[in-house]
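Lab notebook, page 48
Experiment: co-folding of the full assembly
Goal: obtain a model of how the components sit together before planning crosslinking
Operator: M.T.
Materials (sequences as entered):
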Amino acid sequence: MSNTELTEIEQFTNQEYKYGFVTDIEADEIPKGLSEDIIRQISLKKEEPEFMLEWRLKAYRHWLTMQEPDWAKLNIAPVDYQDIIYYSAPKKAKKLNSINEVDPELRSTFEKLGISLDEQKRLSNVAVDAVFDSVSVATSFKEKLSGLGIIFCSFSEAVKEHPDLIRKYMGSVVPYTDNFYAALNSAVFSDGSFCYIPKGVRCPMELSTYFRINASSTGQFERTLIVAEEGAYVSYLEGCTAPMRDENQLHAAVVEIVSHKNANVKYSTVQNWYPGDKEGKGGIYNFVTKRGICKGENAKISWTQVETGSAITWKYPSVILLGDNSVGEFHSVAVTNNYQQADTGTKMIHIGKNTHSTIVSKGISAGKSNNSYRGLVRVSKNAEGARNFSQCDSLLLGDKCGAHTFPYIEVNNPTAQVEHEATTSKIGEDQIFYLNQRGISTEDAVNLIVNGYCKEVFKELPMEFAVEAQKLLSVSLEGSVG
Amino acid sequence: MIDIKNLYVNVEGKEILKGINLSVKKGEVHAIMGPNGSGKSTLANVLAGKENYEVKGGEVVYEGMNLLELSPEDRARAGIFLAFQYPIEIPGVSNTNLLKTAVNEIRKYRGLEELDAIEFLTMIKKKMGIVEMNQSLLNRSVNEGFSGGEKKRNEIFQMAVLEPKLAILDETDSGLDIDALRVVAGGVNKLKSPDNAVILVTHYQRLLDYIVPDFVHVLYKGRIVKSGTKELALELEERGYDWVKDECPVGV
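Observation: model returned without errors.
Model output:
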């Protein structure tokens, strides 16, 4: 391959990030900076009960004693935590009973994002809880779901309407002491989703939430909690977009999942944060703590994700397999291009008996990016009959990108069976030329190959997302083959 | 159908083709023979549009078009097919998927309606008999784990499906045993018609026993130094290439 001149492939220019626009709604903001006072203001604005403010303050005080982690293979410009606005709500937002009451400007934003609430209601059976900056707007399908006893609402609302559930479960999977960003999130979390499926109920529709970071310098600290009681089932989709910005924007979310006996929670993410421009400027810092606990026997939690955005990604959706026979699954496609950096993976903690975990991680690196998989499979001493299968594949597009794998396997029980496979491959110019010679353009050729590579993960996604995932992949990889 | 006029091609700064002149008309089969390093594969690749082959002079007119200006995929869509000497593996992409995408690209280019899954599969099934293609190979990834013979057969199978106007077969016989050769050659013969043309690039006369050429050209050091009919191939088989080298004027 010639390095001295631009190959035909390198000459493709990136497609303009199609969600790069800003909505012109006045935001109701709290001044920049972080202090106990700011936290009180946040809690006040959200009209939270006392216990919530107390929890936030405890988390904040703990956060002050912590240090940013630096063990990940990331090159991070330091974050100035005082230079962030921790609360931003669109001014016209108020309690809405139906979609018709949604602010028309907001509505047009959602439409641009391709998730027109009207369309959603009409064409698909997806209940949408759209989060706009720090406030949830328009929760639809509430009546249908509440008839079944299912609660699906914004986190803020849950704090007020279902404080008992929040008190019981919030922080039970990710305590605020867990890590630096979880502590920060616990102190300043803005909003997110709360989902509760009662005993024996199978949620009849895919639940979905869309996020957006709009106001300049606003960090997004969403908090999601999903609880599936005994025998319950829910499939939850999370998708994100963000506008073009010059300053880095911090996104430190926490997602907790509790799956009781015989329950099954499927959590899918298609992530499309702004990745930074071709020079590596701007872009989202995505530091997320996602964890599920299979509390009861035969409980199951599956994480499926397609990550193509963020300047920096630090994310390890994990499952604690406490209940006997519980199952944890992780299917992921992580794409990095240009100057993106990702240090992602999963943790499967086997504690109960006969627990089973599956990890399928497909990394795709292009441009000058770095993509690291960091996974932990831990089998504790009393975890009889634990089984794990891990497959970590890396696909390198071009010769300036990097892929790294850090698998940690800690087995403390002799009856465990742990398998790990890893492959590294490239898309060669010869492969592209072969497809060209069959009449297929280079862009389509890359898509064919990459989709074949990701097939195993894509088929775990709910259908609505699978199509979006494929499109996302092709946009992210333009101009990246070498 | 295709006129190559005075074509000069460099590869990595080295002059490989030094003024090739070749005309192929519809219904004709041309064989290009020559010793190693003569530029046979270079010719095949430059016609297909492979990168890093610098055309330093001359032109190629295909069906009235300036071929050298077209991208490789456009050349394919216009009906040029290259059966690769070393078909590459493409894990994750099934043969069926590749062919369906290719067929529909070509149909789109020609203003035809794309085939849906059922129409496509029906069409494919008919073509499989042409090269005695095994159904099980269809769902496998392109050339992955295929034996040498299976890879070459897959090339001709693709040719059968894509129905090119001009097929360039680059050493299709290399690495094949007698039986595989028979099947592959049989396939090519079945696909020959008065409306298409074939350029066979080969070392050995053997293939030409099965696919009988109308014209044989000897390529030596980047030039076509001798042209003839199929008898020429037999003579080469008997006397080797040195004879032709000796006959060439000094400096060629």
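Interpretation: The mean pLDDT of chain A is 79.
Next step: discuss with group before ordering constructs.
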